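We store chain and fold; example below:
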Amino acid sequence: MRVPLTTQRARPLEATLLARPHRFAVTCRLASGETVQAHLPDPGRLTGTAVPGAAVWLDGPFALGRRKLPWTCVAMRAGSTWVGTHSALANRALPVLLAAGLLPELGRPERLRREVRRGRSRFDWVLESAGTERWVEVKSVTLAAGDRARFPDAVTRRGARHLTELTEMARDGLQTAVVFVAQRGDVHRFEAAAEIDPALASALGAAQEAGVRILAAAMEVSEAGLLPLRRLTLCL
């Protein structure tokens, strides 16, 4: 199983990154020499990845209407490694990782529900099995230092809030988990980037102490899509 990278073409179109005018857009040059604007569905800093001159993969062109830009940047190359830059694909990877046996702690759910509300919050997944529920949040990871995947690459108040909510739910006796999905195949370990976001790192530690399952896995990014690769060792 895999998570497709593209919806508009069989394989992504390679281009060269010229600039990132703002968080959600990049300027790229196609092989033909044409300059195009592409949506970047990753609000993080993409440190070491969003570098002018880097190779990128684009999906599109999309019909304009609701969209402002005809292309979407789905990956960038950092050195010899392709890094996924579509944050939502990490969320879609959960069923693939479960099927690949990389998340055995989550069991074999009989039913998976997406974007489920609880109170004022909405959670990525609820896994149901034998009358029990597990509430799961998924986070996309792009930053790396050596063989360590690191999260986050920018301050994320939303991420810290999600962890705090999972912690409170765990203390109330609910089964909860957070899964960090590294969209790059060159990592073997996972750690919190405490120097970037101390609040997130603190919330992650509190979640672990409260019994929230902390899991991390890497996906290989290829033209065919995101492929399940390996579990990551936690360094928390």
Q: What stands out?
A: The CA atoms of residues 194 and 202 lie 8 Å apart. The radius of gyration is 18 Å. Residues 13-84 form a domain with the OB fold (Dihydrolipoamide Acetyltransferase, E2P) fold (CATH 2.40.50.580).
